[in-house]
Structures are given as structure tokens and as C-alpha cells.
């Protein structure tokens, strides 16, 4: 009985040893879907994202002293419609001298002389363009003819100037430096004026806004934002339209702070965001500068590296088409060729 038990124990041990030896000599091969996936074959989905490359920057504004509005006549200011911060517009009559309204005008070329019938020149063309813009038709001939002179007279009458003359007289107008200006200082009623004397002063003019542009920006047109205002900015940091920020409190405060304290908080971003694909850094190979490649099986796809964020790399695809997935770890030594 004892001998039979020993024989059975030996047989069981032999069977177990055979199974173990077989598993070592002939291991079971699992498919990639079961357990650890084979190196170089695992793929990851490409997540699409709008990327505007927004950066925080500093800006500086350049101001020019406000232009003066000059008198064209001798006399006394009898009435004036003016307070600091108010807008004077061409085509209005904001002031009277010697109880005669003076009409504000702005032309593309300086009006340097009085005009009567038959006179010609670029200044006449400028006056005709001004009258046309105000709704008074002229011949646009560059000649101070009947249609121009009668339109000028009607323009004056419509603004409270009683006149039978059809001549243009510089003494009867106030020439503005722009179609609309914001007034900083006003004339006082009772003030004596002479031709060429300052009647009023325009607020300082914002002539330029320059942005300190960061390095390594994504390619594309950019917009700078200060407060609630925005404008296009070029690669050098020059803002295309500085007037967009003329009323922005941060810009005005910087001017008041004085030289050396004019830095302004701003941000820049792509005007049109890039559509980028987010891939793991391990998916990239053959990287040179901002160029490289990703793979999708046997396909090699060139990419441009845009940025990195939260462990992923943002890229644009040179083929113009975004793959649905890429290899997470392409084989070592793989090239873009």
C-alpha cells in the first residue's frame, strides 16, 4: 500500500514538471489586443484643436501734441459751443466771431487763398470734394465755376450764415486738422482773435503703438488686444491702426504717467487660429528645428511642430489632411524619406 502511494506521487510530480517545462520551451503568444501590445504597433488617436498662440506682452504708445485750430479773421469770440472732450466736426458752426458764425471745414489739401469765379487749382478741387461729401453737388472740374460757388453759398446759408456772396473767403471758416477732432482747450467768449491765432487745441494724437513681440511665434497674422480694443499687428510689433486704442483707458493712463512709465499690458494671438493635431512627443521622429514626421503604419506624414502643452505636442500636417491616428512609438531609425 505504501509502495503504491509512492508510485502515484512520483507520477504526479512528473506530470507537473512536464507541463512547466513545456510552458518554458513553447510559450503562448498573445495577440496585441491581449495584455501588452507589441512595440511600434500601438496607435493613438489625433485630437484636433484650435490653437491661437495667445501670449501676454507689453506695448508702448507714441503721442503727438494736439494740433491747433486757427482763426482766420480779426475780431472777438461772441459765442462758442465747446467743452473739453467735445468733438468738433467739419460741416458744423461751433463758434461765432463778431456775431457771425464760422463754419468748420476740412479738406484733403490746404485752402490757402480766397476764391472767386474762374479760379482753378488743386485747392479748388479739394473744396469741391468737401462740398460733395457734405451733400452739395459741384462740377468736380477743379475750377471755381457757377455750380461750385452757388453750392458754397447754400452750404453757408444752411448753417446760419447770411450771405449773398458766392465767393469763398478764408476769414469765414475754421479749418480743422481732420474731419472730426476732440477738443482739449476751448476759446473763451470775449477773447480777441487775429488771423493765425489759436482758437482751440486738439487732444494729443495717438500716432503709433508698438508691441514687444515674443520669440518662436506660430506663423500667421496676429491681433493685439489692449483692454476691450483690438487691431492687427505685424511681425515687427507695429500696430496697423493705432487709433483703435485712442480711447482705451490703459493707453490714456500710460500717456499721463509720463516718459519711462508708458508700458501697457496687452496680449497677442493669431487672428485666425490654426487647426492643429495633438500627438504624444514619442510619435515624432526625424526632428530638425520645427520640422519632423509622424507615422501611420507604413505611411510617413511630414509635420510642423507648433507648440507643446500638457504632455502633448501640437502639430500641423504637411499633407493638408489630418490622420485619424498615428503610431505612438515608430520604429527606431525611421526617417522622413
Task: Summarize the helices and strands and which ones pair or pack.
Layout: H1 2-25, E1 43-45, E2 47-51, E3 55-64, E4 68-70, E5 75-80, E6 87-89, E7 95-97, E8 100-105, H2 122-133, H3 146-157, E9 173-175, E10 180-185, E11 192-193, E12 198-202, E13 205-211, E14 222-226, E15 229-233, H4 249-257, E16 264-270, E17 274-279, E18 285-288, E19 291-296, E20 299-309, E21 312-317, E22 325-327
Parallel strand pairs: 8-9
Antiparallel strand pairs: 1-22, 2-17, 3-13, 3-16, 4-12, 5-7, 5-11, 6-10, 7-8, 10-12, 14-15, 14-16, 17-21, 18-19, 19-20, 20-21
**Morphology:** elongated
Extract low-pLDDT stretches: 1-40
The oligomeric status of these chains comes to: single chain
Helix content: 10-25%
Strand order of the largest sheet: 2-17-21-20-19-18
Mean pLDDT: 86
Q: Please indicate the count of domains.
A: 3
Number of strand segments: 22
- The helix/strand class is alpha+beta
User: Strand-residue fraction?
Assistant: 25-35%
Order of helices and strands: HEEEEEEEEHHEEEEEEEHEEEEEEE
Radius of gyration: 39 Å
Distance between the termini: 77 Å
What's the tally of helices?
4
Main pleated sheet: 6 strands, antiparallel
Amino acid at each position: 500500500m505504501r509502495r503504491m502511494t509512492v508510485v502515484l506521487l512520483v507520477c504526479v510530480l512528473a506530470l507537473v514538471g512536464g507541463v512547466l517545462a513545456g510552458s518554458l520551451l513553447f510559450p503562448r503568444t498573445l495577440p496585441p489586443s491581449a495584455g501588452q501590445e507589441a512595440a511600434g504597433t500601438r496607435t493613438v488617436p489625433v485630437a484636433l484643436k484650435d490653437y491661437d498662440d495667445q501670449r501676454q506682452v507689453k506695448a508702448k504708445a507714441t503721442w503727438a501734441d494736439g494740433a491747433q485750430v486757427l482763426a482766420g479773421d480779426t475780431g472777438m469770440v461772441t459765442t462758442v459751443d465747446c467743452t473739453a472732450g467735445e468733438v468738433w466736426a467739419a460741416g458744423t458752426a461751433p463758434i461765432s466771431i463778431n456775431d457771425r458764425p464760422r463754419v468748420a471745414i476740412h479738406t484733403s489739401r490746404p485752402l490757402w487763398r480766397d476764391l472767386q469765379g474762374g479760379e482753378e487749382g488743386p485747392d479748388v478741387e479739394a473744396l469741391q470734394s468737401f462740398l460733395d461729401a457734405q451733400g452739395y453737388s459741384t462740377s468736380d472740374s477743379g475750377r471755381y465755376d457757377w455750380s461750385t460757388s452757388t453750392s458754397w453759398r447754400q452750404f453757408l446759408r444752411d448753417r446760419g450764415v447770411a450771405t449773398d456772396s458766392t465767393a469763398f473767403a478764408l476769414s469765414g471758416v475754421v479749418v480743422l486738422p481732420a474731419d472730426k477732432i476732440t477738443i482739449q482747450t476751448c476759446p473763451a467768449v470775449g477773447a480777441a482773435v487775429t488771423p493765425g491765432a489759436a482758437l482751440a487745441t486738439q487732444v494729443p494724437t495717438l500716432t503709433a503703438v508698438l508691441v514687444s513681440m515674443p520669440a518662436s511665434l506660430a506663423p500667421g497674422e496676429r491681433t493685439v488686444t489692449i483692454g476691450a480694443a483690438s487691431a492687427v499687428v505685424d511681425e515687427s510689433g507695429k500696430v496697423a491702426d493705432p487709433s483703435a486704442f485712442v480711447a482705451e483707458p490703459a493707453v490714456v493712463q500710460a500717456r499721463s504717467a509720463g516718459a519711462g512709465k508708458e508700458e501697457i499690458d496687452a496680449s497677442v494671438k493669431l487672428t485666425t487660429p490654426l487647426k492643429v493635431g495633438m500627438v504624444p512627443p514619442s510619435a515624432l521622429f526625424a526632428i530638425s528645428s520645427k520640422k519632423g514626421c509622424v507615422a501611420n503604419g507604413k505611411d510617413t506624414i511630414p509635420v510642423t511642430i507648433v507648440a507643446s502643452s500638457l504632455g502633448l505636442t501640437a502639430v500641423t500636417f504637411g499633407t493638408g489632411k489630418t490622420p485619424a491616428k498615428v503610431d505612438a512609438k515608430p520604429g527606431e531609425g525611421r526617417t522622413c524619406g
